[in-house]
């Protein structure tokens, strides 16, 4: 089932008198259950594509259709609500709230969604168990390793039961062992629960795990290979 469709997507950034064409006429679609890596050199447009899909940036023109909703037509408040209910994010810098415990970080988006305390607690504990952090639920980010923080970020991304997860360079700050553990967890969630993952990455280890690899150069898709 197709859950994301990009139609003639363009993004131009205006830097003084210079126009930077970050994305140029991209047509792409993604199916439920994909484990896809978007790759390319720095400045190729891969992170911009993720930001556009996630509604974190607006296209200059073109359409972004998620589950039959053209998110470019949504007003700011409606887009924020749509993003909260439908999209999970995992960032390179983890973006955890430092004063909250691992459990509280995972619960946070469910609090925004108005879930009950009981539901928030049960789901947070279950997700932290799934990512192997049952014994660190009360630890704050400063007491966790980089790999552990990123696993909390994955649990947080799953908390809202999103349609898909966007992961922007999620392994960039991790050592080899932490990267392997994180990718194993994501791959298991993808296979066991049919959770869709879309990565932007430079990391060959992520590319090797991906079942589809989209290569971007100068804002254009130059290859799209399903393994």
Q: Whole-number average pLDDT?
A: 94
- Run of helices and strands: EEEHEEHEHHHEHEHEE
- CATH H-level superfamily: P-loop containing nucleotide triphosphate hydrolases
Main beta sheet strand tally, sense and closure: 6 strands, mixed
CATH topology: Rossmann fold
- Please provide the count of β strands: 10
CATH architecture: 3-Layer(aba) Sandwich
Biggest sheet: strand arrangement: 6-7-8-3-9-10
Helix content: 25-40%
Provide keyphrases for this structure.
10 strands; alpha/beta; single chain; 227 residues; Rossmann fold
How would you describe this protein?
There is one protein chain. The protein starts with a strand and ends with a strand. The model has no long low-confidence stretch (mean pLDDT 94). The protein has a single domain (2-226), classed as P-loop containing nucleotide triphosphate hydrolases (Rossmann fold, 3-Layer(aba) Sandwich), CATH 3.40.50.300. 36% of the residues lie in helices and 30% in strands. It has helices at 46-53, 76-86, 102-112, 117-130, 146-159, 176-193, 204-209, and strands at residues 2-15, 18-31, 35-39, 61-66, 69-70, 87-90, 164-168, 196-201, 212-217, 220-226. It has 227 residues and is α/β, with parallel strands linked by helices. The chain is built from seven helices and ten strands. The strands form two sheets. The chain has a six-stranded mixed β-sheet, sandwiched between helices. A four-stranded antiparallel β-sheet has the order 2-1-4-5, with helices on one face.
